[in-house]
Amino acid sequence: PADTAGLQQGDIIIEYDGKPVKNVNKFRNDVAMMSPGTTIHLKILRNHKVKKIEVILGCQNDGEAVSAGLMHKLGIELEPLTPEIATKLGYASDVSGVVISNVKPGSPAAQAGLRPTFLITGIAVDWNNQKPIKNISELNSSLQELGDRKYVILIVRHQNFQRYYTIKISS
User: Fold this and answer.
1) What pairs with residue 25 in β-bridges?
2) Residues 7-32, buried b or exposed e (16+ Cβ, 10 A)?
3) DSSP line for 97-132
4) Contact by Cβ (8 Å): 78, 70
5) Which domains are delineated in the chain?
6) pTM for the full model?
7) What three-state secondary structure class fits 40?
8) How many whole angstroms separate alpha carbon 168 and alpha carbon 171?
9) Which of 29, 35, 45, 128 is disulfide-compatible with 12, CB 3.0–4.6 A?
10) How many angstroms separate the CA atoms of 124 and 142, rounded?
């Protein structure tokens, strides 16, 4: 739907349905709660110019729904690692991964020690089968491959340290 509506990489959504976007997580959650087929009006910033776009929301694909459900069970919210976020967090421009933007208190992720600003750089099916994660799409694919596992092993970077976090998946 974003492509169809004319959104492009690098566009910054500054307003939706007359409400300013002050927090990307709140915006993402608000949109996720809307029904497919809903029309929303966006005001975006593209190349230093404000532009208005109308978007008709589509359905999540099954992979996105599976990983969104798993992220909810784990108790974490994610966002892509943009160059701006990488600079803010002190990462080099060649670093890739997915940023943890929020951890629900008391969740399996919180109990494992994950915190906002930690960077997920990989996932391990087991200790011998590890996959690098460059973006949310790759994380979604890897999570689908987990099947009915009772835990997930995330390879996480924070500042100059890399650690493995084994997180129990609540049922």
Assistant:
1) none
2) beeebebebbeeeebeeeeebeeeee
3) -EEEEEE-TTSHHHHHT--TT-EEEEEEEETTEEEE
4) no
5) 2-56 (2.30.42.10), 63-168 (2.30.42.10)
6) 0.62
7) strand
8) 9
9) 45
10) 9
Dihedral sign (CA 147, 151, 152, 153): negative
Q: 41: which strand partners?
A: 54
Give the single-character DSSP code of 72: H
| CB proximity list for 4: less than 8 A, separation 6 or greater | 56
84-119 pLDDT, tens digit per residue, is: 888 888 888 889 999 998 899 999 999 999 999 999
Question: Do 55 and 42 touch, CB atoms closer than 8 A?
Answer: yes
Collapsing DSSP states into helix, strand and coil, what is residue 168?
strand
Which amino acid does the sequence have at 146?
L
Rounded-to-integer distance, Cα 165 and Cα 17, Å:
39
% residues pLDDT > 70 (the chain): 85
Amino acid letter at 109? Answer: A
Within the chain, residue ranges assigned H as helices are: 2-5, 24-32, 62-74, 83-89, 108-112, 136-144
The count of residues in the chain is 171
